[in-house]
Amino acid sequence: MANVSIKRIEHDLFELSKFGFNEEDKGVYRQGFTDADMAARKWLINLLEQEGMSARMDGAGNVIGRYGEMDRPAVMIGSHLDSVPAGGIYDGTLGVIAGIECIRTIKENDIELDYPIEIVGTSEEEGRFGGMLGAQALTGSITLDWLEKAKDENGIMLKDAMAQHGLNHHDVLHARRDPKSLKAFLEIHVEQGPVLEAEKKSIGVVEGISGVFKWIVRLIGKADHAGTAPMNMRSDAFLGLADFAHQIQRIIDEEGTDKSRITIGHVALKPGFPHTVPGEVDFTIVGRDLDPEIMKGLANACRRVLSTIARRHRLMFEYEQMSWLEPQYCDTEVVDLIEQKTIDRGYSYMRMPSGAGHDVQFFSNITKTGLIFVPSVGGVSHAPDELTHWGDIEQGTNLLLDCVVELATDKP
Ligand SMILES: [Zn+2]
Fold this sequence. Notes:
Layout: H1 6-17, H2 35-50, E1 54-57, E2 63-67, E3 74-80, H3 93-108, E4 117-122, H4 133-138, H5 144-149, H6 158-163, E5 182-190, H7 195-198, E6 203-209, E7 211-220, E8 224-225, H8 237-255, E9 261-263, E10 267-270, E11 276-277, E12 280-289, H9 292-312, E13 316-325, E14 328-329, H10 332-345, E15 349-354, H11 360-363, E16 368-374, H12 390-407
Parallel strand pairs: 3-4, 3-5, 5-16, 6-15
Antiparallel strand pairs: 1-2, 2-4, 6-14, 6-16, 7-12, 7-13, 8-11, 9-12, 10-12
Helix pairs in contact: 1-3, 3-12, 8-9, 10-12
The structure holds zinc ion.
């Protein structure tokens, strides 16, 4: 059984982390289409070429290396090169570097393949401009209209940020891959959550990306003087919210699964004055699950519970659904393959959903996909102290190697 070299992975990850590294807070600042991001892309092109691959940057800023001469659909491995502000050194980068290490190990062990392998470092996954630009471009899920309008939170237009680096936003549309040119897409990523560590597993075999709905809810009561309004004569919007928050666990127990999540992440009380009974509260509800029927059950239960609570507290209840994203599933054959290869290696693992979005979700629209998670220490990510143990990275990359070799080989 061929094995990857964790030393080489470690070396490459540290080299890559230097692009955008901030000495003060030890965070990586490599947001999409910044100087640091583009410098990292040039570094990656060099590295891919050093490893004997042909490498290029496409119109969306994705860096793609190709290994193998055959004119057949490619098994693509990758993840993103960009980071959030003050990000860690593993998020995204692991999926690219692990892919390169697979190629090295394949060459070292003279493993013969029937299909080419492509390594991709996608662009702008973290959503500086509000999408997952690179993966959306590769999979044809982007429009010129969106490209023209996209801007970051400082008002910088995507097209201007691209132009600064000699890229033309019109070319993003040329990055689209013919689905026939791909055999499969595999991604390895840090979990960014606490589950694998808590369950003492080294590998997460991801079944899909949870669907997400987002509501904005408004409970309207009556603002009153906090001294003169008796407790039993109030229409206190905050009490309605508090009551609802208290019911979330029951909603999940009755309608959800262990994969369900409901979160109130933003709350605004009005008028928001210490001596006034809050007459109105606006808040968000974000619900997630891997099953669209469960998502509907959760959403219906939220609506039911909110209207009961509104009556009890003499409130009016309004809500608006801002978005509803269906779950995205990895290919069941690839998921089974990853599980089997994990068992063959004797690694500890569990099947799980991903609560966060990843590049892989767009590839699910055009090819067979698989996603491997490795544990995040303390569940920490998008922060400088993001950490995954080298031993887990080594196992995850060995597993990736086994899956890639299998997918890139004709069955006898
Ligand atoms: Zn990521």
